[in-house]
Amino acid sequence: MTRTEHEVAGLVLAAGGGRRLGGRPKALLEHRGRPLVEHAAGVLRAAGCERVHVVLGARAGEVRERARLEGCVLVDNPEWERGMGSSLRAGLDSLAGTGAPAALVLLVDQPGVGVEAAARVRAAYRDETSLVSAAYEGTRGHPVLLGAAHWAGITASATGDRGARAYLRAHEESVTLVECGDVARPYDIDTEADLGHLD
């Protein structure tokens, strides 16, 4: 493993307020006895990301109190109510100047996406121009790896709840798909019914 590969940063998007969950922030939902945000940060660390930035929004103070996020850089997104795009922008902005050549982005509400999938996507990193996405039966999903050469373009196009979707679609020919359907389940925790996925 090269020194540069070591520097691929992890980025957890964990700012949402859980509107469809009665206003319960997803970061604080419990999975295996700990908050989801703690689980997501642990996945990125175990996948080899030494630097992990976590974007917080809804009830950020409570998340800081309840989740064990030692060693992570906690990034506040005051515009979290505008959607995931604002959190992606805040996260990538926080990584600017760190020397990280890429960011491995994981959503806090996908606990079925674990270390194996994150490590596979990270392993497909080549250089700052890399764009890599997990795929599930050929369909693009998370996590995604965004090379630093693309960050300016991504932040310019990340609006609402779209995140990097529009940018990745516009650069589809440059995206490396890494099949992860055999090691991960890409469900989201969006509604009360989805809570049954949590252990």
UniProtKB/TrEMBL annotation:
GO terms for molecular function: transferase activity. The keyword Transferase applies. SUPFAM superfamilies: Nucleotide-diphospho-sugar transferases. InterPro entries: MobA-like_NTP_Trfase, Nucleotide-diphossugar_trans. The keyword Iron does not apply. It comes from the Bacteria. Keywords: Transferase. Residues 10-172 form the MobA-like NTP transferase domain. PANTHER family: MOLYBDENUM COFACTOR CYTIDYLYLTRANSFERASE. This is NTP transferase domain-containing protein.
